[in-house]
Amino acid sequence: MFKRTRLKIMIFITTTVMLLLVGTVGAIALSSYIEEYNQTVGADKNGLLELFEYSVPDEDAAAKTGSDGDASLPRKDMEAQLSIIKRFVGVLIRNTFRIGLFIVILVFSLSYFIAGWILKPLEESYKRQKQFISDAGHELKTPVATIDANAELLYGDIGDNKWLDNIRYESRRMTELIRQLLDLVRTETVKNIKEDVDLGRIVMGSALVYEAVAFEKGYLIETDIDDDIVIHADKGQMEQLAAILIDNAIDHASGDGAINISLKKDRSRVILRISNPGDKITDEDMKNLFERFYRADKAHSDNGHYGLGLAIAKAIVTSHKGSISVKSGGGVNVFTVEL
C-alpha cells in the first residue's frame, strides 16, 4: 500500500519539476532567439509579434507596374523567419533532452527520499496499529476462552438460564471477532507459503459447504468453474478467500435470483466472480467496502460480521499481487478477483 503511494508521490514531484524545466528552458531559448532575430532581420519595437507578422503585397501597386506584386515586398524575409523558428525548436529540444535527462535522474532520486520522509509517520502509525491489534488479540484469547469454558461447565450444571445464555452468546461473538482480527494481521504480516494449488477444486469445495446455508435463505448456488485451474498461491488463504466471498454473497442476497460463482482463466490471469441478487451498493459504501470494520448494513454485526471479512479478502488478494473489485447495478452485486 505505502509502496504505491510513494511511487505516486515520486511521479508527481518529477513531473512537476520537468514541466517547470521545459517551461524555463523554452522561455530562455525563445528570448535568446527573439533577440538574435531582431539583430539579424531588423525587427522593430513590436518584438515577439514581429516574428509571426507578414504584410500582404499591395495589389494596386502590382496592377500599376504590371508585376506580380514585387512592388511591395513582405515586411520580413519569410525564409529568415522560418530558419530562426527551426533553430529555436531544435535548440529547445536538444537542451531540454540534455538537461532534462540529468534533472530527471536527480529529481527522481531525491523524490524517493522526500516521499519516504512524507510517508514515514503514516507507516509507523500503521505498524503500531497492526502491532496493537495483534497484541490485543492474543491477550484477549486466553480470558475469553476461560469465560467460554466456564460458561459451558456451568451450563452443564444448571441447564438453561437466560443470563448464562447471554454469556455464552457474547463469548462466542468475542471469540469470532478475535479470530478475524488475528487472521487480518497474519495475512498482512506473515509471508505466504505458496505452492501449486487447484483453485477450481477449492472454490467448488467452498460452494458445496455453503450450499445448505444458501438453501436455508431460499437461494441456489450456481457454478461455472473451469477444470484444471492451477495457480501458485497459499492454499489456506485461497480457501479463506473463497469462503469469505461466498458467505458475503449469501448474507447480503435479497430479491429473486441465485448466487453465481464463476472461475475462468484469461491468458495469464485467473478471474473469480461471485455475484448475488441484492440492492444497489451506494457510492459511499463502494468506497469503504474493503476498509476494516466498515459495514454497509450495521445489523449484520449480530450475525458474526464485524466488517473484517472483505478487509481480509483484500489483504489476501493484495499479498498475491492480485486485485479485487465490486460492481453493483441492475439488482446484482458482483465481486471480481483477478490473480
TrEMBL record:
GO MF term (any one): phosphorelay sensor kinase activity
Catalysed reaction equations from the record: ATP + protein L-histidine = ADP + protein N-phospho-L-histidine
Alphabetized UniProt keyword annotations: Kinase, Membrane, Phosphoprotein, Transferase, Transmembrane, Transmembrane helix, Two-component regulatory system
Histidine kinase domain span: 135-339
Membrane-crossing segments per the record: 99-119
InterPro entries to which the protein is assigned, alphabetical: BphY/WalK/GraS-like, HATPase_C_sf, HATPase_dom, His_kinase_dom, HisK_dim/P_dom, HisK_dim/P_sf, Sig_transdc_His_kin-like_C
One record GO biological process: cellular response to phosphate starvation
Gene Ontology CC: plasma membrane
Subcellular location, record wording: Membrane
EC id: 2.7.13.3
EC category: transferase
Protein name (record): histidine kinase
